[in-house]
Amino acid sequence: MKRDAVSFEAAAGAAQATRVQRRACYFEDGSAQFRGDATGPLFGWYHDAPGAAPRDCVAVLCAPVGHEYTRAHRTVRHLADRLARAGIPALRFDYHGIGDSPGDDLDPGRMAAWRASIRTAVRQAQLLSGRARVCVLGLRLGATLAATVAAEAPIDYLVLWNPCVRMKSYLRELQAIAATAERASGDIAGGVESAGFVMSGETIADLRGIDLLGLGLRIGGRALVIGRDDTAPDHALCEHLAASGIATDEVRLPGWSGMMAEHQFTVVPDAALDTIVEWLSAHTEPVIEKMTGTPPSLFRDTIAFAFRGESGVAAVVEERLCRFGRDEHLFGILSRTSSGTERPAILLFNAGSVHHVGPNRVSVMLARNLAAWGFPCLRFDHEGIGDSIPRGATRENHPYPASAIEDVRAAIDCLRHRFGYDRFIAMGLCSGAHTAFHAGLELGDAGIEQLVLINPLTFYWAEGDSIETARRFEDAAAYRKSMRDPGRWMKLLRGEVDLRRLAEVAASHVKTIVRSRWHALVEELNPAAAPRLARDLRRLMEARRRVAFFISEGDPGRDILMAGARWTATRALARKRIHLETIPGADHTFSQCKPRRDLVCRITRHLRAA
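User: That's the sequence. What structure does it adopt?
Assistant: Structure tokens below.
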């Protein structure tokens, strides 16, 4: 697949398909507190198609955990839609401590909480749909968790897609990913930090004891085990289920690697989703009697929970679900407290094509920490990303959507007219920084007071540009870092370095420096002829909009800034018109816990001082 290939929604088929109603909600099992397995409220989406011929089953979709969670988000949403159109309502949800649900990776009792989350989702799905029969469908570790729940209480149908059968193998995989990280893991006693996911020693110990081949599952109907078509088959789980008297089907399907690609390049595995829907439709019965509608009272749109921030602040954070935009097509979550402060509201934009939780859940951390200090914070999805479903033939999953500024305007209108806020801060990571920068330039009457740009990779993206716009700056930063590593010099002496590539990067870097210094001279002598970035920075400063940069150590954001506005940026930094901080030990998406917490604390400290 081309690196810059970006998928489009199949508009023609979607227009003719049965309309799906998607409702976001919070839910919890009130009776769980008496059993001792309560998790508190969970976040989920209920998909239903009232115009479809109903079947006697509801599906509960159990997402993967860790780095696979955000990558699979798009596919899980598409699967829920297809099930709904087949007459099978679907509930997808976030486990406690993951995604938009309250809690944290390092809370105690993760395994118990995740299993309790599935049980709570099953009961909620039955309430929302009016169906008694349930299919629990899990992906990867979500499939393993689903199977352990099926060992505790009977379920009707079980679909296990690429399940982790032997957890020891899964844990070795996490440790191998952690070992390939550019920077060493932080201080997690007995735990592991793998691709942005933190797993405590307690969780590892609980997982290590799981082997699906030793579980006695209780399935009233049938099971479907889905393997990958690009790996060697393993029939052990199917043989175990069949030996236990469970009617089991086995199939190997394509598309797993495409589904788990980098977020902006994910591919929805259509053939696999069609197979799942056809299998479940074939084994369920049509509903003859008329189905009653779901009571609106079951769709709870606000929760409040105790929260302790990274800097020690404690608060009760309220989170409210928000649908907004001209067609109510945009979705976000507003985090705030009842403190009644006069601090500005923060707009937190998508980073790349990751939905509104952010890469490695950084957007959730930022929103809740800032809310605890009195900054209301709306994290939301642009149209075509995450849970803001594209209208018509709008492009899906693109990190620089054409509607970005229109979406920002809609978010500001929502916060102003629905909640009474009139002062705003625009904040974003990577492509979200691009959105924040242009919102500050283009929405002069919107009340935006400050821009917080985290690891910007470009200030100007146009249709036809590569999504990897900052490659030459990243290469230069990587080689500069290598120069401080004695091991890299030894590789050079042993002839293990691509000298041609090194020369190309060095030549490009020298050319960039010469160009930036020439532009700096032009900026000083003839500001009207200065590069676009220098002129736009001056526009922001003249409009009294503060600009703050937070750049990961080794990320090219500062180099990109200086290449396009060296004289203007240098003077603005010296006069404190621009704020810039470097986050030591951080990578581009803050995939490690310690730098991620450092980022949150630095931004909070800066905004409180401002």
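Residues 499-525 form the longest helix (27 residues).
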